[in-house]
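for the writeup, i need someone to sanity check this before i put it in the appendix. the sequnce is what the collaborator sent (i think, or maybe the updated version? ugh). structure was predicted straight from it, no edits. if anything looks off just tell me and ill rerun, i have time this weekend
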Amino acid sequence: MLAIRRVPSDRLLALLLIAVALSRLPFLDAAYGANIDAWRVARVARQMAETGVYEVSRFPGYPAQEIVSSWIWRGGPWALNAASAICSVAAVWAFVACARRAGSPDALLAGLAFAMTPVFFVNSVTAKDYVWALAFVLGSLSSILRRRPMIAGLLLGLGIGCRITSVPMLLPLGLILFREMDKPQRWRAVAGSGLTTFAATGIVFAPVWMRHGTSFFTFYENHARPDMWDVALRFSRQVWGSVGLIGWAAVFIGMAFRFSRKHEQPASLPLPHNPFFVPALGLIIVIYGAAICVCQIRRAISFRSSLRRWCSRAALRRRSVFGSAVFA
């Protein structure tokens, strides 16, 4: 009988990364993407390359991605989209590395699921900055789990340079780093990584500061703010897709069925050696979830103010009509 040879995990990882890259190829020349911001990146990339003067594609600026895009803009959609695809491959590699370090027995399957998640796949073949920032943030986490705090700080700074909303990752990544290091090195590692992050962010954002001063810290309201229904849709069907939601439903049903069978002892999930790892992931959800809630509260307050103004104008019009009728 022929013996079945087990393929080494590193070779399987290489095959996974090749498959991820090949899956993006058919979509690289399909324009810059459906979002208008992707076209702004392309426009500014050409403008910077021709004039040598930095300009934001939209505030508050995404200088790391915008500057790199100005180096390759002549390649058109294929070049800018390919850069995002390369970042997606790097993000998958970093994700698998983090899953392995966290003790996952199915890190490669998790990486495959991550690579094929609809929202990630779509954004990995456009000129937007999402996948760029995600790749750097995951690279920072991977470096932390390998006890390389300075590299982690540099990568997080570059991630912030790609998308400033990566700033809140400082806290959860700092917690993981603190517990990952040996006791004598903890505070020094956290301080060194944080200073590296701030230095890298400052260098990357220097062109924005020099060009626009403090006025860059704003954003374009080029579309309506999403309501709660849109938010729910975006973190459910628009993230996982219909097929993905069916898969999640099957997982939860299977888990409920298994736990309902009392005579079976459910197997415990492997826990990472760093006890701060899971709480830090929960903190990420809390931070960005709170940001969404704040936006919704501001939207509700703005709607209430607008409704009051409309009611005041309507009442004033009624009084004007009534007065005209009386004095007619």
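The two ends are 107 Å apart (CA to CA). The chain has a mean pLDDT of 85.
thx in advance!!
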